[in-house]
Every structure is written in C-alpha cells, then in structure tokens.
Amino acid sequence: MSPRDITVGQPLLELRGLTAAYRGLRALHGVDLDVARGEIVAVFGANGAGKSTLLRAVAGQMPIGGSIVFDGTSLARVPAFRINRMGVVLVPEGRRLFPRLSVEDNLRLGAYARRGPDRLRPLELVFSLFPRLKERLPQRANTLSGGEQQMLAIGRALMTNPRLLMLDEPSQGIMPRLVDDILAAVLHIRAAGVTVLIVEQRLDETLEIADRAYVLQTGRVVMHGDAREIAADVEVRRAYLGM
Ligand code: ATP
CATH for 3-240? Predict the structure, then answer.
C-alpha cells in the first residue's frame, strides 16, 4: 500500500500565528501550520529558519505567542512534561540519550511515566522496526553507531506511546544507507497509528514519505503544499531551498 492510500483524518495539531523568541530575538514570526491525524508532514528550510524552534515550541520547551492546539486542547501554558504525557513527543537533534545506560534501560526509561501491564508493549514495534536494537540490548548507548543511536532515540520516543511524533533531523550524522532505513521506519510508525511531524535536510527522500510539506524562511512559512507537488516544483526548490 502506498503511504498516501491511508485516509487522513481530523486536525490533530493546529498552529496559528505562532511566535517564539530567544531573549527578545524572534525566531518564529506568526507560523500557521496544520497536521491531520495520520499524516506525515515535513518542514524544510535553510539553517536558522526556525525549524527546531517550531518543534521545541510545540513540545512546550519555550514560551510562545499565538496558539497551539493539539487534539482540540490548547497547549499554551501547559508544561512540557504534561504535553509529553498527552502524546506529543520530540526526538531532538543530537538525540539526548542516556549515554552510559544500556539500550534496554534507555528504552525502559521511555516508558517510565506509563502504568499498567501494557507499559512495555511498544517494544514489539520498536524491535520490528529496528532489529539491531534487540541484538544490542545490553550495549551502552554511547557505543552505538550514529544510526543506531538515532534508532534508539526514536525507539525511546515510541515507548511513550506517542500520538504525535516530532523528529528533528533524524538523518543528521548518519550513513546514507541508514537514512533510508530510518525514513522507511517513519512510514511504519505512521502505519502503526502515529502522526509524524518531521524536520529534515534530505529533501528528496523526505518528500517521498511525506504527505505534505512546509517551507520556513527566517521564521515564516513561505510555502506549503502537497509533497509530490513540491517535489516536482523546480522553481520552489531553487527559490526557497537552494537546490
Ligand atoms: P538548523 O537547520 O541549523 O538546525 P533551524 O531551522 O532548526 O536551523 P533554529 O535552530 O530553530 O533553526 O533557529 C532559529 C533562530 O533562532 C536562529 O536565528 C538561531 O540562531 C536562533 N536560536 C536557536 N536556538 C537558540 C538559542 N538557544 N539561543 C538563542 N538563539 C537561538
């Protein structure tokens, strides 16, 4: 089944006039962005365009202006840990694993806030996506390759049972072959019922798995649309993405 055969549903995430700043310096200038249930939405843009800031703002990691609504609930003023428990989970750039802990402990820590017998059920999905992790359960996270660390970071996020998974440049510092594996895993993650918002530099590979995409330029959305149309639009690529 092609990824686009999955029927996308109601709005899950709605950003309206989103602003965010670092010590008075604005990084986002009124961003409108929508993610529907079951979609994979990609965000592109040059370095410093505000892509990571956008994800951090949704995750509750910085003060914002404008509105963020997740599944009908405003996230403004909701603390980050509660946003996380609502199912909005960010895999940040640089992964932030617990380097001296084992693969297994990193995964278990992803589920620490969950209760009940189903706590560790996402392990099945994690192992089916990334069999390498299963083979390396006792290994310390800091001894994994870059690609394996990224798999572990995504796996740990999946252990929280997310509804919206936000990935910040998962291909960074990874061998090309593993980039394909990770993007393929994103399709499986969506098929498992998780909506995905992904920031990536790999334009072509990401447009192949995304339904829609947004392009940010200095903190503003300069275009958005169907991923296939953006992929085919040479002018857009040249004007906004330098490709
Ligand atoms: P990249 O592709 O390089 O990661 P990006 O599109 O993710 O870039 P952001 O990291 O969101 O961009 O940065 C947006 C703007 O905010 C930039 O001007 C950046 O310098 C600034 N910025 C980001 N993080 C901080 C910070 N911790 N303190 C101050 N300014 C910051």
Answer: 3.40.50.300
User: CA 91 to CA 158: how far, in whole Å?
Assistant: 10
Verdict on whether the full-model pTM lies above 0.70: yes
Rounded CA-CA distance 177/200 in Å is 16
Distance 21 CA to ligand 1 centre (A): 10
Residue with tokens 């169907």: 226
Q: Which range, of 2-11, 52-61, 93-102, 139-148, averages the lowest pLDDT?
A: 2-11
CB 51 near ligand 1, within 6 Å: yes
**128: alpha, beta or left, given left = phi > 0 and alpha = psi -120 to 50?**
alpha
| Of the candidate ranges 32-46, 98-112, 113-127, the one whose mean pLDDT is the lowest | 113-127
Q: How far is the CA of 20 from the centre of ligand 1 (A)?
A: 11
Return the ligand 1 atom nearest residue 23 CA: 29
Buried b / exposed e across 88-126, counting CB within 10 Å, b at 16+? bbbbbbebebeeeebbebbbbebbeeeeeeeeeebbebb
- 63 CA distance to ligand 1 middle (Å): 15
Q: Where are the domains of the chain?
A: 3-240
* Protein residue with its CA nearest to atom 28 in ligand 1: 22
Coil, strand, or helix at residue 237?
Answer: helix
**Residues 106 and 97: beta-carbon distance below 8 Å:** yes
